[in-house]
Structure formats: structure tokens, C-alpha cells
Amino acid sequence: MNILNYKLDTTNELLTSRIGLITLAH
Fold this sequence. Notes:
Helix content: over 70%
Low-confidence stretches: none
Largest sheet: none
Number of strands: 0
Shape: rod-shaped
Mean pLDDT: 89
Structural class: mainly alpha
Radius of gyration: 11 Å
Order of helices and strands: H
């Protein structure tokens, strides 16, 4: 359960940073 939450957190962080980079690129 804890590992699942951790994985979700990292995925969310990666998605957020990726979206931020895309927004900056545009």
C-alpha cells in the first residue's frame, strides 16, 4: 500500500515536471 502511494507520488511529480517543461517550451 505504501509502495503504491510512493509510486503514484513519483509519477505525479514526473507528469507535473514534464507538463511544466512543455509549457515552458511553448
